[in-house]
Design a protein that fits this description.
With 624 residues, this protein is mostly loops. The chain is built from 11 helices and 26 strands. The strands form 4 sheets. An 11-stranded mixed β-sheet has the order 14-15-16-17-18-19-20-21-22-23-24, with helices on one face. It has a 10-stranded mixed β-sheet with strand order 4-5-6-7-8-9-10-11-12-13. Helix 9 links the parallel strand 22 and strand 23.
Amino acid sequence: RDVVDLQVLEVRGNPITRSSWYRKLILSTLTTLRKLDGADILPHEVETAKEEVSKLQRWELSEDVLLDRSFCRRGNRRLMFELNSSDTERSRISNLLSMSGPVTAPWKPTGLTKSNWKNHVDRIDLKDMHLGDLCRLSSFVHLKRLDISGNRLTSLLKLSSCSALEELIVERNLLSSLVGVGELVELRHLDAGSNRICDVLELKKLTKLHQLSLEDNLVDSLDTFASLHSLVQLYLSNNLLEEVRSILLLKRLQKLLVLDLAGNELASATDARLYTMFHLKRLKVLDGIPISPQEQQAAEEKFSGRITMELLEDKLGPSPSCYNFRSVDLSNQNLRELGRLLNDDVFPSLRELNLNGNPFSDFRTVGPLSKLLVLKLNRTKIDLEKGMLGDADHIGGIGTLPHLQVLEVSQSGITDMSFFSNFPLQTLRILHLPGNEITKVEGLSHMEQLRELVLDKNKIKQVDEGAFDGLRCLRELRMDDNGLKSLTNLGPLPRLRALHLASNRIAELGELDKLRPLKHVVIVNLAQNPVARKPLYRAHLINAMSSARAIDGKEVSEEERERVEQMLQGGGPAPIGAAGCYVFTEQQQQQPAIPPQNSNIAYMHPNLGGGPNRWLPGTGSEQR
């Protein structure tokens, strides 16, 4: 209107052209036009348009119009678009009020009169009446369905009194917002297509909404729709949605089965359809096309098994919050690729990273993570030889974690520890490698700060000389359930405090003497070894490891230690029987077949000091 000399105007392809009166409205406003949408404007068209638009502006809803456009409910309630012409005519209020006699009984509601007819109205159809106002609808408090499509409405505020509404059709109007709709809390079906709507915040109040149609509008965000948890069908074609990742907001809609985003910029993104199907797995129809099993499979193959920003946001929240995360758990996500998002640019504060239970083999895309302290790679398929150290094509890897202190790689099929010698792990304090296929301890000598080493449930039958060289700070060593046959070369470990060797194959008491160099061990566990079932096993172990405070989970008391010392003070016994066999003799005097509670049983072993009849005081049952 401000372009006073405008003569040619093209609006084809815009939602406004779907209205039957759009041309007349334009001609009545822009009187200087000579051509509209490629068609010449005839001289009389402008005057005719002005006259008809003027009549429309004076249009008001009369009582007679409302009587003719109102309906009462008969039989099962159905949506307006499901009603046939027979249903419509039978339930029209004006027809029912004009009927008389018994013929009306099946159709006319009981008590319907001209004075109370508004209380019986269930539906009103006011479509294509060019209305600009809804001022006369406030008295229809029982109204369930309203069709006001094809009018010139700019606001829905005057519908707030119709709080019982369940179905509302307002397509093809001049609405720019849905302000007022929020009061219609019973609404289940809303069709507001072909308007100019950009403000949809009021929808958040409609918790019962099942079907929402907003096609051909100016909606540019999916934020509001994420709170409509009852939605089953959502139609948003031909709007201003641009970012394909915004689809993730709809993952909260667990009941959503039908979604239409065609005509938006996001729908033209590469693999947008597969992307949407992958993240909204419950969808049955997308952009008007049913989703096939083949498409679902293709979506899984395309987008599953790798770390993406979508996965991170789904698990951790919006991407800006990643900057403050100190711990990230991505365990059991079926990740085959780790991507390039686990680095300081995205997680500058990260201290702990859990990647347990994922089938990836290559770690080289992870990092740098300059503050990472704990890394968990349990139950993966990590390739120590080719998948840990970065190269020219991979700027990450284990070498870009300069402050790593804890590394767990259990049950990952590791067979060769030698590759650890190539990893810069000088700051590592805890290394867990249980449940692998390791046969040889090696590659650890550069880990000078290592405090705890766990090698349980591997296949280590013996320890080679020098295997633990360099581990001057090691406090705890666990090698349970390995099939270990010898205790040779378990050192030097000058600061070792706890030694766990349960469920191995240590059979001879002589092997226990090989633990004497471990002078500071406080806790030792050799339970479930054959040697642990031999007489004087504890005594021999206490003798070999004088610093032990607990053996096989049982505390070493001062009384027990004194008994062992007393046994050792009398010199060594003469060999009796095969080497390593314990025997006991009776005292010189005659002893009963079953010794009394306080009888003294004498034990002898060729490797222990004492004469041929050295006595070990104590109860018979305990000492055996």
